[in-house]
Design goal:
Blueprint lengths: L38 H26 L7 H19 L19 H24 L1 H8 L2 H12 L2 E3 L1 H22 L8 H27 L4 H22 L11 H28 L2 H8 L2 H12 L6 H20 L1 E3 L13
Antiparallel strand pairs: 1-2
Helix pairs in contact: 1-3, 1-9, 1-11, 2-3, 2-8, 2-9, 3-4, 3-7, 3-8, 4-7, 4-11, 5-7, 6-12, 10-12, 11-12
Length: 351
């Protein structure tokens, strides 16, 4: 829920480099095998998700190179909010948002309010990380949102971390260490690239937590389109409120057309193309296959950064990015085991 977000777009994708959470309606059994369908079509949709998340990272980096990063989160989340509204109307799920209707979700919407606030905090930090560290540093660190999400899931949803998952964590951390070593011997995006690496950990944590809260909300019976609308509606509201209260709304007046277009495209690629492609891919392919394919996003982002943005990447950095990606894929495939628990009722507790 992205770089890979762990909210509605990333497992988060947020903004960005990872798959969205897969959770069914209340009372449905979670399916890992996907719907019967055309596997070739599923692979094409998965490729579309990779292109979407990669494009979001590349356009996001291009947009903040000469622009104040505080301008980016609103433009990143606005397309997703519009998509949520369209899906809400098409599926007639807007009744869950109307207090005078029997379907009104009420307090069950609170998880999506929380996930929206956590997500937008991560989005602000992500664009500052892109500005300071570039895609080669920010995206691999962001990919660890899958791991953080699983750890939060262990605490909040009783989704136990397995020993194989711990091995995946070790491989990922080793890959990030190799990446850091490689960057220290190369030409960084800025002299403050190490701050970019540390800042990228904030969206990894925030989007990982957001994805867990999101899954909790869907288990309580809130429709996906309702969740998307509330989540991104709150994100847009918080971004706008911050800019207004801090007197920074005029930041858009100083953005040239190219940077504004790049930031808008980052939102379209990450919040619309990637998310829609991801959900479509999971209708035709097993979720595990989709997760493996999305493990390529840090690699494709680094390649795009080198080709289109001139970002430096050496052999040691490639090795670090590869190891970090492999570790995340291993964790996605074997990292957690959900504890057996009673079925959650519609009036169940909130996280």
């Amino acid at each position: 829920m992205p770089a890979n977000r762990s909210g509605p777009e990333g497992s988060g994708a947020s903004a960005s480099a990872g798959p969205p959470p897969v959770a069914g309606r209340r009372g449905e059994r979670h399916r890992d095998e996907g719907e019967p369908g055309n596997s070739f079509a599923g692979e094409l949709w998965a490729l579309g998700a990779i292109v979407g998340y990669t494009g979001a990272n590349i356009f996001g980096r291009a947009g903040v190179t000469d622009t104040d990063p505080v301008a980016a989160p609103l433009l990143r989340d606005l397309p997703s909010f519009v998509m949520g509204l369209l899906l809400l109307v098409r599926g007639r799920h807007y009744r869950q948002l109307l207090p005078n209707r029997r379907e009104f979700a009420g307090r069950l919407l609170l998880p999506f309010l929380v996930s929206g606030v956590a997500s937008v905090i991560g989005t602000f930090a992500f664009f500052f990380a892109l500005d300071l560290g570039g895609v080669n540093i920010a995206v691999p660190v962001l990919q660890t949102q899958i791991i953080w999400g699983a750890l939060f899931g262990w605490l909040l949803l009783q989704e136990r971390v397995t020993s194989r998952g711990a091995f995946g964590i070790a491989v990922t951390l080793g890959g990030l260490a190799v990446l850091t070593l490689g960057q220290s011997r190369g030409v960084p995006a800025s002299d403050d690239w190490l701050w970019g690496l540390l800042l990228a950990a904030i969206p990894a944590l925030a989007w990982g937590f957001s994805g867990v809260v999101w899954r909790r909300g869907q288990r309580l019976g809130v429709e996906r389109s309702t969740g998307i609308t509330v989540h991104y509606g709150i994100s847009v509201l918080v971004s706008s409120g911050f800019l207004l209260l801090s007197g920074r709304m005029d930041v858009y007046a100083g953005i040239d057309t190219g940077d504004l277009t790049a930031l808008a495209l980052s939102g379209v690629f990450g919040g619309v193309i990637a998310v829609y492609s991801m959900f479509s891919a999971m209708k035709h392919l097993p979720a595990a296959n989709v997760f493996v394919l999305n493990g390529a996003i840090p690699m494709t982002s680094a390649l795009g950064g080198a080709l289109f943005l001139g970002e430096y990447v050496n052999a040691v950095m490639w090795l670090g990015i590869f190891l970090a990606s492999i570790g995340v894929v291993l964790f996605q495939l074997t990292g957690t085991a959900r504890a057996r628990q009673p079925e959650t009722s519609g009036s169940g507790g909130l996280p």
